[in-house]
């Protein structure tokens, strides 16, 4: 165990910090879920990132990355959040589909999709959930029928984040007549192609956070299928593993929020219940614990380990810490908590609202608790 | 940056684990509870022969001179079996202090001799009666005495395997050691209590899981019911996010700066919270069995309760975390920052 950075890692941090200081826009961008303009401004930022070669630092160079290791990735993320750089509009591409493509894609598929993902030229949405298949994802009904070199897609997807403005989606489809975990495939389709209708859905805060997608005889080349036909469930579970285990939520996100919370507390504690200090300290400790845990996971992955069912504990921990942290902020703000934040100010209320989605998406916390009990602890189904 | 344990560390921990699993059985606990002893001579000899008492002791004093992390891994295993033999405080805290103050003290030359230590002035001392030497505290001065140089009065603990004593003593009849590093003692005591807390917590969960697979109600194992599952997942999650903190805190204990102290305190708080939630959950999952003296779960509850406020209360430790949070740089690039460097 060596809990300090090497000179190379320190130099790398300085390089990232320097570049971000020079390039992060000074005025914050309009939220990518708020309007098409906000979305496009974030795409533009992705292009700027790419110009510095920062699109996705862990990917091999040939696919648009820098070939860096996971510790460097964590350092990059820390600096990224520290610099308050714009949110990653392509997060479902780079953090979820990207690692999955890396594991299951052919060389041709990786060359076709990864570089444009890293540059933000193609922004991705995840189209798995359906009205009747939420937690019970194996209940997916959307179909893919093979027709020569193509698939014909039909079905109804919902809650697809950023699909209202995104370019591509990776969807879960089944061969007609198959049941449950068998016969599913993961297939990519363009969101503006013939037969695709997307209806924006407003989130709890009024932004167009997601869309429902109707597919009517949508034709895509068989090349767009990731992995073998019928392997879709297996691939989705691997994606979910990356999502929960490492990539979806950077510890840095919570460390920045905890630091802001400490500032808020110090500025206002004279008007507050002194007992709230314990909650502020708790938020800091939880953010630190999450960071340490992710460093531990990254180190063991680098030493050859694989992500296992314990990834589900991450999902529980960060989502619950996020809610606790933001509830504490609202308690400190008191009567001001309900006020819509001024532009540029830390948006406690909106972040609180968003924290409430944490226990729902990426597999609800109830489902994570089932997974921990059954796969980690070995309790019977 | 590398957050993995070395093969040597894993090997030591495994040695301790094997020894403890073989010898610290429910029969062993029952024997101690009936006799009222905290120590089984045969087991203690095995612990000593395996070298576990030498890990934290400096090489000059005949020890192995290894770090707090190495010993924390042993303490975690000790927690898993609710070890009552005086290994953790004696070899982890008291012996290194005595070695720092009186390297030639003959007690140090005998690896089988245990040393008790008073955590704070006037405080109760664990295992004082069976110790070869007791380190006592007045202000920041330390003194050493043998049990027969002081008056010991037993104070009964809810934990049947903890033997606590009030100590009355006369300065002139004990040997002064001079000013001691009580902060370091507290850091060591706290991190090893935290490590034991992880072990206690995991054992409580494991016992409940085993029981929940076997026990049937309504024609099914109770472990197939979601309410039971979710309780246990919550406890396991608390363990998963305490353990990296304990490991990191032990690995950086030697820095002795405000960050290192805050991390030790963080570890102490969350590891004992995990032990508390795990033990209470385990009792609930065991039903009335869990409420009985016969089933061993209560030993873990009681040890967790005792260790929660040993070596600093949660309130004390929270204040140390607050001191770091409010006086030092915070944020994502400061996870491993040290006080004497600018982040
Ligand atoms: C902000 C946000 C973004 C999202 N983005 C995407 C996206 O990009 N792509 C996508 O495909 N989907 C997305 N989703 C959908 C998300 O994956 C689903 O909401 C989630 O899987 C839960 O499904 P559901 O909403 O149908 O709830 P349901 O499955 O109907 O669950 C409702 C409640 O019942 C509980 N429940 C269900 N089954 C069980 C069980 N077996 N045991 C115990 N409790 C149970 C759940 O935990 C939950 O509390 C997003 C959701 C949100 C909120």
Describe this structure in words.
The complex is a heterodimer of chains A (381) and B (343). Chain A has helices at 7-23, 36-51, 70-82, 91-104, 107-118, 232-247, 251-268, 276-302, 311-333, 348-355, 365-376, and strands at 124-127, 143-147, 150-161, 168-174, 184-190, 196-201, 210-221, 225-226. Chain A is of the alpha+beta class. Chain A folds into 3 domains: 7-122, Orthogonal Bundle (Butyryl-Coa Dehydrogenase, subunit A, domain 1), CATH 1.10.540.10; 125-230, Beta Barrel (Butyryl-CoA Dehydrogenase, subunit A, domain 2); 249-376, Butyryl-CoA Dehydrogenase, subunit A, domain 3 (Up-down Bundle). In chain A, the strands form 2 sheets. A 4-stranded mixed beta sheet of chain A has the order 1-4-5-8. Chain A has a 4-stranded antiparallel beta sheet with strand order 2-3-7-6, with no helix packed on it. The model of chain A has no long low-confidence stretch (mean pLDDT 95). Chain B has 343 residues and is α+β, with helices and mostly antiparallel strands. Chain B folds into 2 domains: 7-180, Butyryl-Coa Dehydrogenase, subunit A, domain 1, CATH 1.10.540; 183-342, Butyryl-CoA Dehydrogenase, subunit A, domain 3 (Up-down Bundle). In chain B, 53% of the residues lie in helices and 11% in strands. Chain B is built from 11 helices and 9 strands. In chain B, the strands form 3 sheets. Chain B has a 4-stranded mixed beta sheet with strand order 1-3-4-7, with helices on one face. In chain B, β5 (151-156) and β6 form a beta hairpin. In chain B, 53% of the residues are buried. At the A-B interface, α3, α7, α8, α9 and α11 of A face α7, β9, α8, α9 and α11 of B. The site of flavin-adenine dinucleotide (FAD) has 20 residues of chain A, from β1, β3 and α11.
């Amino acid at each position: 165990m060596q809990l300090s950075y090497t000179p190379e890692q320190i130099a790398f941090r300085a390089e990232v910090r320097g570049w971000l200081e020079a390039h992060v826009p000074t005025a914050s961008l309009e939220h990518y879920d708020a309007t098409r303009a906000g979305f496009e401004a974030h795409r533009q930022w992705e292009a700027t990132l790419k110009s510095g070669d920062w699109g996705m630092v862990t990917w091999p160079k040939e696919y648009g990355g820098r070939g860096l290791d996971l510790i460097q990735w964590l350092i990059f993320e820390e600096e990224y959040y520290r610099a308050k750089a714009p949110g990653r509009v392509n997060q479902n591409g780079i953090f979820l589909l990207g690692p999955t493509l890396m594991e299951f894609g052919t060389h041709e598929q990786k060359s076709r999709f990864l570089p444009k993902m890293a540059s933000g030229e193609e922004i991705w949405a995840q189209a798995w959930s359906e009205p009747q298949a939420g937690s019970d994802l194996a209940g997916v009904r959307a179909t893919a029928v093979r027709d020569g070199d193509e698939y014909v897609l039909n079905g109804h997807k919902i809650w697809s984040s950023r699909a209202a403005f995104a370019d591509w989606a990776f969807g879960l489809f089944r061969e007609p007549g198959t049941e449950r975990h068998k016969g599913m495939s993961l297939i990519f389709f363009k969101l503006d192609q013939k037969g695709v209708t997307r209806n924006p859905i407003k989130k709890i805060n009024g932004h167009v956070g997601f869309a429902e997608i109707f597919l009517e005889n949508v034709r895509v080349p068989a090349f767009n299928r990731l992995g073998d036909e019928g392997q879709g469930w297996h691939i989705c579970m691997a994606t979910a593993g990356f999502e929960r285990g490492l990539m979806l939520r950077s510890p840095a996100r919570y460390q920045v929020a905890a630091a802001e919370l400490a500032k808020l507390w110090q500025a206002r504690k004279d008007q507050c219940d002194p007992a709230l200090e314990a909650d502020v300290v708790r938020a800091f400790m939880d953010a630190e614990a999450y960071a340490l845990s992710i460093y531990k996971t990254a180190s063991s992955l680098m030493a050859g380990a694989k992500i296992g069912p314990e990834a589900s504990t991450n999902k529980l921990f960060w989502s619950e810490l996020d809610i606790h942290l933001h509830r504490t902020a609202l308690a400190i703000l008191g009567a001001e908590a309900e006020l819509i934040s001024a532009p540029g100010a830390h948006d406690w209320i909106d972040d609180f609202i968003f924290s409430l989605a944490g226990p729902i998406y990426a597999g609800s916390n109830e489902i994570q608790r089932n997974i921990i009990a059954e796969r980690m602890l070995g309790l019977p189904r | 940056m590398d957050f993995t344990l070395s093969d040597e560390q894993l090997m030591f921990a495994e040695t301790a684990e094997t020894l403890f699993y073989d010898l610290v059985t429910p029969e062993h606990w029952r024997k101690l509870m009936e006799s009222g002893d905290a120590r089984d001579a045969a087991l203690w000899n095995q612990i000593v022969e395996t070298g576990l008492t030498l890990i934290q002791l400096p090489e000059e004093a005949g020890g192995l001179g290894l770090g707090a992390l190495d010993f924390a891994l042993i303490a975690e295993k000790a927690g898993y079996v609710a070890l009552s033999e005086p290994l953790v405080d004696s070899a982890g805290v008291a012996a290194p202090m005595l070695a720092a103050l009186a390297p030639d003290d003959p007690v140090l030359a005998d690896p089988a001799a245990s040393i008790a230590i008073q955590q704070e002035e006037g405080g109760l001392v664990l295992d004082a009666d069976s110790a070869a030497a007791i380190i006592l505290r007045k202000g920041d001065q330390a003194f050493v005495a043998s049990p027969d140089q002081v008056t010991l009065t037993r104070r009964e603990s809810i934990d049947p395997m903890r033997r606590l004593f009030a100590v009355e003593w006369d300065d002139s009849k004990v040997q002064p050691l001079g000013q001691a590093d009580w902060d370091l003692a507290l850091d060591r005591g706290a991190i090893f209590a935290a490590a034991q807390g992880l072990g206690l917590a995991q054992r409580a969960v494991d016992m409940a899981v085993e029981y929940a697979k076997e026990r049937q109600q309504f024609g099914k194992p109770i472990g197939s019911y979601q309410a039971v599952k979710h309780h246990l997942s919550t406890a396991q999650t608390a363990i998963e996010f305490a353990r990296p903190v304990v490991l990191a805190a032990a690995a950086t204990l030697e820095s002795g700066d405000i960050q290192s102290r805050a991390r030790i305190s963080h570890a102490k708080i969350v590891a004992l919270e995990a032990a508390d939630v795990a033990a209470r959950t385990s009792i609930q999952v065991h039903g009335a069995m869990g409420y009985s003296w016969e089933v061993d779960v209560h030993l873990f509850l009681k040890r967790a309760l005792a260790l929660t406020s040993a070596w600093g209360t949660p309130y004390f430790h929270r204040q140390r975390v607050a001191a770091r949070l409010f006086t030092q740089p915070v944020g994502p690039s400061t996870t491993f920052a040290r006080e004497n460097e600018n982040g």
